[in-house]
Amino acid sequence: STTWSGEVLVHWYITAILHAAVLLIFLEYALLHRAIPRMVDCIWPSLVRTGQVVAAGGLFFAGFAKWNLDFLDPRTSCGGIYYLWLRELPGLDMLPTSHGARQAAAVSAAVSETFGPLALLWPRTRRLGFVLSWGVLLALALNPRSHYFEFAGLFFACSILFLPQGSIDEAKERFWSRLGRLSKHLRSYGG
Description:
two-stranded antiparallel sheet, about 70% helix, about 0% strand
């Protein structure tokens, strides 16, 4: 696995950068406008585009980091190892364990994580981007031995940024409506 400064994995840096970028966007707005109320509605359009670029950029970087001989070699590649671990899931034990199968898994992960995020940035290719990017992340998240679930979870959460604006508005309305009902329920339960 690719690391910087000892034991810290590159994926942890990417996750931290994405969290920091979102936090800084909110903080900048709060400081410039001296207001937090309705902040999400006011900055949502710029947050969406910035979030799209940051999320796709982080995922692209994770894919780009895989283009090295260690990752593409099935004997040393974590892609090949994760592929073998996926075979532990029910129904996947029939997948081949050959050198070629492990190499195909490593190469397809590198291709998907490199080109999927780029496809996400344009509406015409966004569906392909979802299939490529989130397919790899789903395989990581479902992997019984994976420790990249936080990385995969962050990008799954960011996927809302790539939905059409109408879908996002509807999701926001549902979220705030449900949060309001939950709040009323909790107040009536506690009081």
